[in-house]
Amino acid sequence: MVMGVISTKALHKVYSETRIPVRALNGISLSIEEAEFTAIVGPSGSGKTTLLNMLGGLDAPSSGEVHINGTNITSLPSRRLIDFRLHNIGFVFQSFNLIPVLTARENVEFILQLQGVSKNERQKRAIELLEAVGLPDKIDNRPGDLSGGQQQRVSVARALASKPRFILADEPTANLDSKSTAELLDIMMKMNEQYKTTFIFSTHDQRVMDRARRIITIEDGKVARDETR
Amino acid sequence: MIWSVAWRNIWRNKLRSLVVILAVTLGLFGTLFMIALSNGMVEQKIDASISNEISHIQIHTPEFMQDQSLAFSMDSTRAMEDEISSIPGVKAVTSRIKAMAMASSAATGAGIMVNAIDPEKEKAVTKIYKSIIEGDYFESSGKSAPILISKKLATKLKAKIGSRIVITIQHTSGELAYGLFRVSGIYKTANTVYDEPNIFVKKADLIALTGFDPSKSSEIAILLNNVEQTDPVTKSLRAKYAALSVLPWKELEPILLALGSMIDQMSYFLLIVILVAMAFGIINTMMMAVLERTRELGMLMAVGMNKRKVFLMIMLETIFLALVGTFVGIIISAVTIHFSGLYGLNFAAWAEGYESWGFSALVYPKLYLYFYVEMTVLVIITAIISSIYPARKALRFNPAAAIREDA
User: Fold this and answer.
1) DSSP characters over B249-304
2) If DSSP codes are grouped into helix, strand and coil, which group holds residue B22?
3) Assign residue A133 a region: left if phi > 0, alpha if psi is -120 to 50, beta otherwise?
C-alpha cells in the first residue's frame, strides 16, 4: 500500500464497557494524501466519529495502526501523543468549543502559546488568520458576541494557527445555517488550496459532500465506498 | 496566557465565585479578629501584671517565696538598689517590705498583704498610682498613717475615704502589733484577684509599727526598658546575687506565659478548622467549575494542552479565588483591628467576669504583621491542596468523550 500523509492499517475498535460489546470499527485501511479535501460519511453509528477520533489520536484502536507523516501514533506514549497533536493536527468541532473568556484573537493565539511561539509572532499570525477567515472586524470580540458561523470561522483559524499538516473537522456545519455553511466551506477550500492543508470531515451534510473531492462512506465499521471526484 | 485564562475563568460565574470569596473573606476576618482579640487581651493582661503588680524582675530571699513573713528579708537593700540601677536595661528599681496581716474596719475584717513602699520610687516602677479612683496617692497629710486599699477591699470592709482601718501584724519581736491607718486612697486595677488582698502603706509607717530594720527589705522590684531585656538582666542579676532568689515575670506568674501559649494553640486550632472548612468550600466550587467545563477542557486536551498545563490552569484558578478572598479579608481585618486597637472594645456588660479573671473589659485587639503573612501563606497552601482533587478529576477526562458532553 502507498502510504499517504495519513494511513490506517486494519483499524479495529471494540467498546467493551457495555454488556454486549460494540464493534465500532471493523478493519479499516485507508490512505489520505496531502491537500485532500475528504468527507467521511455514513449513517449514525456507522463509526465515522470513531474513525475521526483514531485519526486525531484522541482514542486508541483495539488493534491496527494509524500512521501520520510516517509516525505510528498508536504506539506513542500519552505525553508524546499530546505534543504530536499540538504540532501536527488541527481540530474543528461541531460545537465550536472556543474558550468563552478569550477574544477571537486570543482563542487563535492560545494554540500558538501552547507551542511556545513568541507573543509578537502569535499576535501577527492570529490577526492574519482571522482576516483570512473574513473576521478582521471581530478580532477583539468574545465568542458570546459572535454568530455560530463566525465562531466556527474562528475555530477554523484556530485549527490553522499551528500550521498543521491536516485538519479534522467533526460535523463542522451541523450547527450552521445554509449561508454560514457555504461561507465556511468557501473558507476551508481556500485554505486547502492556499496552505495545502489536508481537510478531513465527518459529516451528514449534503452541502459538505457536494464540495468534497473525495468521499469515504463508512457502514458497519467498514469502508463501504471510496469515491474521488 | 494560562494565568490570564485562569483569572478570567473565575469570573465566568460571578455569583458562585463571589460566594466563595465571601466565605473566605468572612472566615479569614472571623479568625483574624478572634485571634487579635485574644492576643490583645493576653498582652494587656501581661502588661498590666508587669506594670501594676510584679514588674519585670523581683528579688527576694529564697525563704520569702515560701513564707511571706518579715523574718525573711534582705540586707542593705539601698546599696543593692543603686547597684541594680546601674545595670544596662534597668529603668527603675524600688524596694518593698511585704507581710501578711489582718485589716479590720468598724464593720468587719479581712486577711491582707501589706506592701510598705516608698511612694515616689514606687511610681517609677508600678502604675498603681494611676489606678486611684477615689482620694489620692499618699499626697494628703493627717494625724493617722495613710493607707491605700482597693475598691474591692473597701466594699468588703465597708470603708471609704477617711475611714479608719486597724492593721494587725506580727512585730519583729514576735508579738502582735496594731496600727491605726486612715484610708487616703482607693484604687482599682483590672484584676480584682490582685486588688482584694493588696494594700499599700508608707515604708516608714510600717517600720514604726513593726520595728523592722530600715536597711532591710522583703522585695526588690525592677522595671526594665523593655520586656525583651528580661532574660539577659535576670542572668546578670543571678550572677551578682547568687544567694538570693531572682525571678523574672515569667517565673513569678508562669500562668501568664501559659496563657499566651494556650491562646496561640487555640488560635492555630481555630485556624485549622477555618482552613479545612475553606478547603471544602473551594473544592466544591472548583469541582462544579470543572464539571461544567468538561467539553472545553476536553477541547484543550484534544488540541494539545498537556496535563501539566491543565493542572496548572485549574490550580491557578483555585489560588486566584482564594487570594481574592484573602486580600479582601485581610484588608477588612487589618482596618477593623487597627481602629478597634486604637479605641478599644468595651465589654462593659461582662466587666465583672473579665476582671475576676484578671482581664480588662476594655480590650485593644492586636495582631502582628507576621500573622497576616502567615495567614496568606496558609490560605495559598490550602488553595493548592484544594485544587488537587478537581484538577485530577479534569485530567481523567477522555478528550474524545469530553468534547461531546452536553454543555
Assistant:
1) HHHHSHHHHHHHHHHHHHHHHHHHHHHHHHHHHHHHHHHHHHHTTHHHHHHHHHHT
2) helix
3) alpha
> How many Cβ atoms are within 10 Å of B225's Cβ, its own excluded?
13
pLDDT per residue as tens digits for the range B106-141: 889 999 999 999 999 999 999 899 999 999 999 877
Q: Edge-to-edge, what's the strand order for the sheet holding A89-92? A: A89-92, A166-170, A198-203, A37-41, A214-219, A222-228
ipTM for the assembly? 0.86
Tell me the sheet residues that pair with A222: A219
Residues 6+ apart with CB under 8 A from A28: A8, A10, A11, A47, A51, A64, A218, A221, A222, A223
Q: Cα(first)–Cα(last) distance of chain A, in Å? A: 21
Nearest-angstrom CA–CA distance, A25 and A12: 5
- Of B271, B333, B326, the closest CA to residue B36 belongs to B333
- Residue B375: which of B275, B291, B285 has the closest Cα? B275
Q: What is the pTM of this model?
A: 0.75
Q: What is the pLDDT of residues A97-138, one digit of tens each?
A: 899 999 999 999 998 998 889 999 999 999 988 998 888 899
| Amino acid identity for residue B37 in this structure | L
Q: Please list the residues that pair with B182 across neighbouring strands.
A: B146, B164
Q: Which residues of B touch A97 (CB under 8 A)?
A: 295-296, 298-299, 403
Q: Which helix (H) or strand (E) segment is A195 a member of?
A: helix A178-195
Q: Which residues of A touch B (CB under 8 A)?
A: 53, 56, 58-59, 79, 82-83, 85-87, 90-91, 93, 95, 97, 99-102, 106, 109-111, 113-115, 158, 162, 170
